[in-house]
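Morning, I've got a small favour to ask if you have a moment. It would help a lot if you went through both lines with me. Thanks so much in advance, here it is.

***
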Amino acid sequence: MIIDGKKIATQKLEDLKSKIQTLGIRPKLNIVTDQPDSVFVRQKMARGQEVGIGVTVTDKIDLAADGIIVQLPHPQADELIAQIPPEKDVDGLTGKSKFLPAAVSAVLICAGDVTGKTIVIVGQGRLIGKPLADYWENMGLSVVRCDVNTPDLKEQTLSADVLVVATGQERLITAEMVKKNAIVIDCGAPRPEVDPSAAAVGAITPVPGGVGPLTVACLLENVFEAAKISKV
């Protein structure tokens, strides 16, 4: 079964557009990047324009914006992230933000209720793997964290009722590494990290069209919420 993140994202964006029109303000997002022409930046700009969020792309922090993100990777990422006020940290990277990283929110939506399920997360990056594992553990759930040093990766992934893969390594997980009826969240971008044939085993998010578009929608929702706070 395919988990259609694009369809979910489309509905969320339509709802967000209505909320912005009702609120009568134009939220502003500042994307700090050294690669302004990247496909990821262009997607955020396009979706922002569609819903009524102004998006500026700069090489430094713009404190006038309601929400600020540093598009990763960036050579000065840590230095720039440290300059983002917590109330404007719409991608949850400062450690003090009220917002979850958008990709984490997207995974949570795709995974649904994971109570009582065996959760395995492959990859412990700062955008998805680590904060997602932290979130679920803070909810009282047990999470198996895997990374490049995990010696028995196949054994771990085969135990998963919910398998999240966020490593940056294309087709790392084959169908033989996925448990029957598992929910598989492939966070690969722009290429899949799970062999698409694993869709026959259980439910899977496609790449493209899964976590990616939903991440953008969740980010823009965070910008809207930040804008509401700043206008109070």
